[in-house]
Amino acid sequence: MKADAKKIVDGVYWVGVLDWDLRDYHGYKLNGTTYNCYLVFGEEKVALIDNVYPGTSAQLWGRVRDAFEQEGREFKIDVIIQNHIENDHSGSLVEFVKKFPDVDVYCSQMAVAGLKSHLPSLSDFDFKTVSTGDSVDLGGKTLSFVQAPMLHWPDSMFTLIEEDGILCSNDAFGQHICLSERFDYEVDEAILMASAQKFYANLITPSSGLYLLKMKELGDLDLVSKVKMIAPSHGQIWTEPAKIIGKYNEWASGKCKDKVTLVYDTMHHSTTKMAQAMAEGIMSAGFEVKMYYLHEDDRSDLVTDILDSKAVCIGSPTVMNNPYPSLGDTIYYLTALNFAATTYKKQAVIFGSKGWGGGATNKLETDLTAAGFEIFDKFDTIYIPTEDVYDKCYDIGKSLVESLKED
């Protein structure tokens, strides 16, 4: 198919794929995404940085051909950089190796076994491994490599196009959005940052400490000052790197807003009414509240708000001595994301309605503590809440905020 390449700077093109249809990926909801690939023309060699999900390569091939036509160059790729082994980055590698059998493929040592596992036809392929400090000279364009394990897989690495200061950052600094525009300044900043926060919350949070160490390493190597543009594997290209780097530094260090995220589910609306009363108490003390009703709302959205909240309130009825089932999904996800990886320990309030013996709040206390939250208060009531119960919920919400203000 025909598709246009987008020139980023002289000799560097975006040649990725717009996946307009994707709605669920990495366990969270989205409205399409991009698989970003970059074609770099040196005087002697041409390099493709990453490729795309299996079955989506028609756009990629169209854009690659268009870039070659724009450059007036012979259609030949000499080098492929495989920053990451996951299918949305490597799924079309076999096609390119077949088309250009003499191509050199560079990746991290950790990536080799994964690529051969994902792509059995390349089990005997001679991958060239690189580490931090290694580089490939294309002739007037130098690609330098930085290992970035667990940002967000063990094999991940970054590639810096040195002469242009373009950091191809793989999944770091990405956003799962699909827009016709390619650059950050072409998109409403609030929408862009919200997408970047959702991406960080759902994918990068467990590696917050590793991110901070990596940024220190890049600073020590005097690489941060060289970055003029960040070209991630998903979403918009950052022409003002300081903006997204600053946000990542905030999220990784646990900097929070004056905000509480309140998450609940209910059988007969008792827990709903308690949640509403607690929200009133939180607001009365001057904090923002974000409400999530698990019957309808998606966990990927609630964790996005939890990322920059100082506390979370979790409400559940008791069902057979345990929390409502939807809470189990949420707690598993919170445990996996490990918000304790950031330096700020978030407070938690647990509440709900029970029929007789209860059990939900005790179970949630155990699980949230294990997930790295500090329990501020726990409260449940029998059957239908009374006005006294609503007052108690209001007071807990207000007391929580007053306590947070003292921190």
TrEMBL record:
InterPro entries: Flavodoxin/NO_synth (IPR008254), Flavoprotein-like_sf (IPR029039), Metallo-B-lactamas (IPR001279), ODP_dom (IPR045761), RibonucZ/Hydroxyglut_hydro (IPR036866), Rubredoxin-O_OxRdtase (IPR016440)
Keywords, alphabetical: Oxidoreductase
Residue ranges constituting the Flavodoxin-like domain according to the UniProt record: 260-401
Catalytic activity, EC: 1.-.-.-
CDD domains: flavodiiron_proteins_MBL-fold
GO molecular function: electron transfer activity; FMN binding; metal ion binding; oxidoreductase activity
TM region positions: none
Principal EC category: oxidoreductase
Top-level taxon: Archaea
SMART domains linked to this entry: Lactamase_B (SM00849)
The name this protein goes by in its record: Nitric oxide reductase
Natural source organism: Methanobrevibacter woesei
